[in-house]
Amino acid sequence: MNSSPRLPLSRREFVRRAALGASALAVSGTPVRAVAAAPAAPVGPPVPPKKLGFALLGLGKYASGELAPALQRTQNCYLAGVITGDPEGKGKQWAQRYGFPEKNVYSYDTMDAIKDNPDIDIIYVVTPNSLHLKYTLAAAKAGKHVSCEKPMALSVAECDQMIAACKAANVQLSIGYRNNFDPYFQEMMRIARWKEFGALKALDGEFTGGNQAGEWRTKMAFAGGGPIMDLGIYVIHASVLAANGETPVAVTAKPGPVTLPDIYKDVEETMEFTLEFANGAICNGYTSYTRKPKPGGAGANRFRIDYEKGFVNFPGAFNYNGTRADTSNGPLAFPGIAVGNNYQQARQMDDYARCVRDKVPTSVPGEMGRQDMKIIEAIYASAKDGGKRTLVKV
Ligand code: NAD
């Protein structure tokens, strides 16, 4: 989890100063011995840290509409290549548009050869959910660090395979939890971490969307489930962040009515669920592929947390860039970040590139994706009979 912008920094500074003081104390009283000065190292301009190369795998709506543009705003990484089903057409067009060499265009069948391409450090899997497992394993086999979209996979068992493969290949695995890098969400995480508003009391979240008939999101074999896998997961994930990383101890769930039977034959159309935390706090969650219009016409997209002594309310909680938040202390404001300019994905990929480059663990690892998948599996189990399912943390 990302550290907070304010308090942890000053703590870190405190620790740093304390450490400096301690080392100064440790040497005081030690006799000082004169040593010959070492020859001066040649002085040159500072070498900027290496920018890491991302290859996007699956050039659909999210990769082309959000990730590729975001990679034009990053400082620690850049778009170095692609893996696509259409290397001759789409692949070459992307190479021209984004200025990477055509040798960095791969098909799904040739992607093994990426292992010999030093331009590519990280492969970002952005395919339908059912293919996250296959391509994460392929990327790890090619010795590349992996970023994988949410939901991490179709089951906890698949998540386990992905985590094990990346460990065995000695590469990192991160999940595309963009909200963790949104400044407004990070402030909520800081409030939760330092219990600024006291204990967690209640949470309430909704996220809805829509599909055309026949889209992969409406097919169980591709999506692994309905809106819980796609949209409800945001409410689940945000709840765990608001609980400072604590996961729910029990869940209950109930599928909603099917109003579009031609589209939703295979996966649920709507799911209502509750997440119960150890201290008794309850999250009421709602997710649906039937848009639930709000004033202003948008689908439902909101998240509110009530703590003992205050609240944090995100009206458009899961927007790509327009997140903002009101709190019991007034609206959150970040000078220099206009609403609509949060650049979550750029921050997310920059952070991952820094982690890979500096060999520090990502704050959104595969284990975090697995944790959400475990909650989702319990939600589906409960939806079958409405009974409460308890969860044990592992
Ligand atoms: P999409 O259908 O627009 O794109 C999927 C891509 O995968 C396409 O380019 C398609 O050609 C490719 N693909 C490769 N093999 C395929 C196969 N066998 N069958 C079908 N397609 C195949 O989907 P999308 O909206 O870009 O979603 C992709 C992933 O990104 C999903 O896992 C989704 O949950 C995730 N996503 C995340 C966010 C977010 O905010 N983090 C937003 C949207 C989507």
Descriptive key words:
alpha/beta; 10 helices; Dihydrodipicolinate Reductase, domain 2; 394 residues; 6-stranded parallel beta sheet; single chain; 15 strands; 9-stranded mixed beta sheet; globular; binds nicotinamide-adenine-dinucleotide; Rossmann fold; 2 domains
Description:
This protein has helices at 7-27, 61-70, 87-98, 132-141, 156-168, 183-193, 220-223, 227-242, 344-358, 366-385, and strands spanning 52-57, 77-83, 105-106, 122-125, 145-148, 173-175, 200-208, 250-255, 270-276, 282-288, 301-307, 310-314, 326-327, 330-331, 389-390. Helix 4 runs parallel beside helix 5 (156-168), helix 5 (156-168) runs antiparallel to helix 10 and helix 8 crosses helix 10 (366-385). It has 2 domains: 52-175, 3-Layer(aba) Sandwich (Rossmann fold); 182-339 and 366-391, Dihydrodipicolinate Reductase, domain 2, CATH 3.30.360.10. It is globular and about 65 Å long. By secondary structure, it is α/β, with parallel strands linked by helices. Mean pLDDT is 88; it is low at 1-36. It is built from 10 helices and 15 strands. Strand 1 (52-57), helix 2 and strand 2 form a beta-alpha-beta unit. Strands 14-13-12-11-7-10-9-8-15 form a 9-stranded mixed sheet. A 6-stranded parallel sheet has the order 3-2-1-4-5-6, sandwiched between helices. The structure holds nicotinamide-adenine-dinucleotide. Residues 58-63, 85, 126-129, 131, 149-150, 176, 178, 216, 230 line the site of nicotinamide-adenine-dinucleotide. Nicotinamide-adenine-dinucleotide binds next to helix 2.
